[in-house]
C-alpha cells in the first residue's frame, strides 16, 4: 500500500477543512516545514492539527521538517509575480524594497558567496523559478528571470551545482526541538532532518528531542558507504529530488536514486520520494506521459511512500492522490 504525505502550508491557503476529505482519498500524513515561524507558533499549529484529527477520528502522521540553514526568500508580504526576461535584484531582507527587488535571508552574508559568478543559475523553489546571474556586487546580485513564477516568502533557493551548500539543523531547528519535548501528544509526530550527509545531525536531533522517530532527508549525492551510515542511523529516508537536482549533475541523479532505493530496501527502512511527482499537473491539469512513466517506475521499484509538494500540494492535492491511488489498485 502506497503511503502519501502532503506538504502543508497555511501560506498557500488554509486547507485544514479538507484534511478529512484528503484522508478518505488516501492521505497518510502531512509535512510542516519549520521556517518563518517561531517555535511557539509552529507547536500551536501542530496542536491545532492534532485536535482537528482527533475530533474527526482520522489518523494523520505529522512530519516536522527541520530545514537547516540555507538561502531563502525574505519578506514579500502577499508575494511577487516574477515575469520571464525581466531583471530582478536579490538584496538583503529587512530593507525597504524598490520595484523588482527580492529580499533574501542567509545569502549575501555567506562566506562562500565568492564561489558564484555571472552566468550561474539561481534555482528557486526546487527549480520552479530559475534566474541567470548577470551582475554581482557586495550588497546585491542582479538576475534575469528565465521563466514566470509567483514567488512567496520563505521559498528556498540555491545556485546550480550546489555552490551554496545548506547546513543541517539551524539554531531555529534546535530551539524547536527543545520546545517539542513539552507536547502532550507525541505519538503521531516524526522529525525530518534536511540535508543529511552523515549520521551526526540525526544523533544530535535525537539527543535534543529524545523519543521521536528521526528521518533523514537526503538532498546531495553521497557515497554508498556514507549513505548506509545515514540510513542505519535513521528511522526512515526521504529523497529530496528538488534540492538534489540543484546540487548534482543531471547524469548522477538517476543513478543515485537507484542507490537510495536499493540501500533503503536492503536495510529495511521506509523511503519517501519527494518532489517532481506529476509535475505537469500545474501546467495542464493532467499528468504527462513522462509523469506516468516516472511514477510507474518508482511504484514497480517498490517505493511505498511519496510526498506531494510544491504547486500540487497547494492546487492539486486531490488530483495527485487520485493518480497515486490508481497505482495502488494495480
Automatic annotation (TrEMBL):
Q: Where is the Pyruvate kinase barrel domain?
A: 18-320
Keyword Amino-acid biosynthesis carried by entry: no
Q: Signal peptide span per the entry?
A: none
For this protein, the record's Pfam families field holds:
PK
> Where does the source fall among the domains of life?
Bacteria
Q: Which leading EC class covers this enzyme?
A: transferase
Q: Which InterPro entries match?
A: Pyr_Knase, Pyrv/PenolPyrv_kinase-like_dom, Pyrv_kinase-like_dom_sf, Pyrv_Knase-like_insert_dom_sf, Pyrv_Knase_brl, Pyrv_Knase_insert_dom_sf
- Reaction equations catalysed: pyruvate + ATP = phosphoenolpyruvate + ADP + H(+)
Family, according to the entry, reads as follows: Belongs to the pyruvate kinase family.
PANTHER family recorded for this chain? PYRUVATE KINASE
Please report the name of this protein according to its UniProt entry: Pyruvate kinase
**What is the phylogenetic placement of the source species in the record?**
Bacteria, Pseudomonadati, Bacteroidota, Chitinophagia, Chitinophagales
Amino acid at each position: 500500500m502506497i503511503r502519501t504525505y502532503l506538504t502543508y502550508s497555511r501560506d498557500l491557503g488554509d486547507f485544514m477543512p479538507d484534511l478529512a476529505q484528503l484522508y478518505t482519498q488516501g492521505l497518510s500524513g502531512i509535512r510542516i516545514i519549520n521556517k518563518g515561524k517561531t517555535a511557539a507558533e509552529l507547536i500551536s499549529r501542530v496542536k491545532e492539527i492534532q485536535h482537528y484529527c482527533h475530533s474527526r477520528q482520522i489518523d494523520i502522521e505529522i512530519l516536522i521538517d527541520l530545514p537547516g540553514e540555507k538561502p531563502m526568500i525574505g519578506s514579500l508580504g502577499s508575494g511577487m509575480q516574477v515575469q520571464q526576461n525581466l531583471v530582478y535584484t536579490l538584496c538583503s531582507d529587512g530593507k525597504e524594497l524598490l520595484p523588482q527587488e527580492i529580499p533574501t535571508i542567509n545569502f549575501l552574508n555567506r562566506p562562500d558567496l565568492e564561489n558564484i559568478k555571472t552566468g550561474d543559475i539561481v534555482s528557486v523553489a526546487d527549480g520552479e523559478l530559475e534566474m541567470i546571474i548577470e551582475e554581482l556586487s557586495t550588497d546585491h546580485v542582479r538576475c534575469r528571470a528565465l521563466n514566470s513564477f509567483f514567488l512567496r516568502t520563505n521559498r528556498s533557493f540555491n545556485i546550480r551545482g550546489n555552490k551554496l551548500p545548506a547546513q543541517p539543523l539551524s539554531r531555529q531547528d534546535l530551539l524547536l526541538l527543545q520546545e517539542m519535548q513539552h507536547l502532550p501528544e507525541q505519538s503521531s509526530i516524526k522529525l525530518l532532518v534536511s540535508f543529511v550527509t552523515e549520521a551526526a545531525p540525526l544523533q544530535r536531533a535525537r539527543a535534543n528531542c529524545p523519543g521521536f522517530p528521526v528521518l533523514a532527508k537526503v538532498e546531495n549525492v553521497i557515497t554508498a558507504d556514507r549513505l548506509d551510515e545515514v540510513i542505519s542511523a535513521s528511522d526512515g529516508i526521504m529523497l529530496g529530488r528538488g534540492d538534489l537536482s540543484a546540487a548534482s549533475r543531471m547524469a548522477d541523479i538517476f543513478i543515485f536514486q537507484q542507490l537510495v532505493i536499493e540501500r533503503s530496501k536492503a536495510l529495511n527502512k521506509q523511503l519517501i520520494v519527494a518532489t517532481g511527482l506529476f509535475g505537469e499537473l500545474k501546467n495542464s491539469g493532467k499528468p504527462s506521459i513522462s509523469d506516468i512513466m516516472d511514477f510507474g517506475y518508482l511504484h514497480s521499484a517498490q517505493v511505498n511512500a511519496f510526498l506531494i509538494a510544491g504547486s500540487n500540494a497547494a492546487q492539486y492535492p486531490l488530483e495527485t492522490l487520485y493518480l497515486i491511488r490508481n497505482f495502488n489498485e494495480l
